[in-house]
Amino acid sequence: MTFARNHWYVAAYGREIGRELFARTILGEPLVFYRSEAGEVVALADRCVHRRYPLSESRLEGDTIVCGYHGFTYDKAGSCVFVPGQERIPRTARVPSYPVVEQDSFVWVWIGERDRADESLIPRAPWLADPAYTTVSGMEPLAARYELLVDNLMDLSHETYLHGGYIGTPEVANTPITTEVDEDNRIIYVSRHMADAACPPFYAKSTGIDGRITRWQDIEYHPPCLYLLHSRVAPVGVLPEADGSDPNGFHVEVVYAITPETEHSTHDFWAVARDFALDDQEVSDFLRDSNRTVVLQDVTALDILERVIQGEPRDYQELSINIDTGGLAARRILKRMVAEADEPARAVTA
Amino acid sequence: MTDRVAMLRGATVYRIHWELGTDVLVGVCHCGAEHDSEDPVELWDWLLAHPEGHEPPPAGSPAPVDREPVGADA
After folding, report:
1. How far apart are CA A26 and CA A29, in angstroms?
2. I want to staple B18 with a disulfide (CB 3.0 to 4.6 A). Which of A177, A203, A230, B3 is the partner?
3. Domain map (residue ranges) of chain B
4. What ipTM does this complex have?
5. Residue B3 C-alpha, separation from nearest chain A C-alpha, in angstroms
């Protein structure tokens, strides 16, 4: 098993879940989602207890799912409330239900032991549901294991080669990189702070900055699922205030949710939120198109890599260099999370 | 701006700074001990071995924190 169970994962955008039954596999578990008449999101195992027919191929009736094969009917908690042709409902006639939280435009689902699902553990991406930001977003299916996407996102130096012409920046080679790991809170942070950089035409036009800029690109990864890229530009020398506020900076918050589908496939959620040019459709189109292009370039490369790795022995040799400092930190914490998934509950208290 | 960026404020933060213009990585433990290496695998091993092989912190104040990460404490 290569999954870190007993964690929250992004299952969908809230907008994807409505009054139609919606199937998605998370960590190898087929789930069915729907929105109740009151508007809450429900997640159940997507297999009828009777003959394993997918409930997602069935019918929603009020807040119950009526199995499309023999009519077993389940309520929001997964309890069977009707079986065809008889009065008695077998005691074991229920499907597992999953804890769900809607937050920051995402539907988060807890995969693991129900009684350990603590909502306060869900990392935040507040910009995605903040009216002070405009957000574009999407999701691309990846035919590769999630670890490859984590590796990819933790090292942005690949952008020069894989994404040449899209997000590469000439100053990167002259920018010191700092990698930090907060052991207790399990956060990996990779900072690239460019004190004095040329302003790309996109930013000059959309922010009105005239001249050179101070540019930060900071990765903040909350394993296993949430990856944030804080991109900040400001007139050269302008830094955030001492209290942490940053009224003179322009911010693009790039958010990825990395959710394993199976051991060899991943849901690659991406979103780009900005706090400038809020109503400028051209800016939205540019950010959507360029980020989606970058994501699809990664998908193509990682799909190839997955096929290669599957054909190799389990302990294939790699070489790690300086650019891998952050990726190595992420791998270590993910490995520990996977190991903890098999331990008793008391071991996971961080 | 200092080369020694520090963004996380937790009590147990390990840092690795890539020295500009070189292949040298500088590991800084939460105890203040420092170690240079050109191999990130070796350097993580050294950091995570704390307190083994970690000298007492040198004199001087810890690196300044430029900004608190927005999502870290939410």
Report:
1. 5
2. A177
3. 8-57
4. 0.89
5. 7
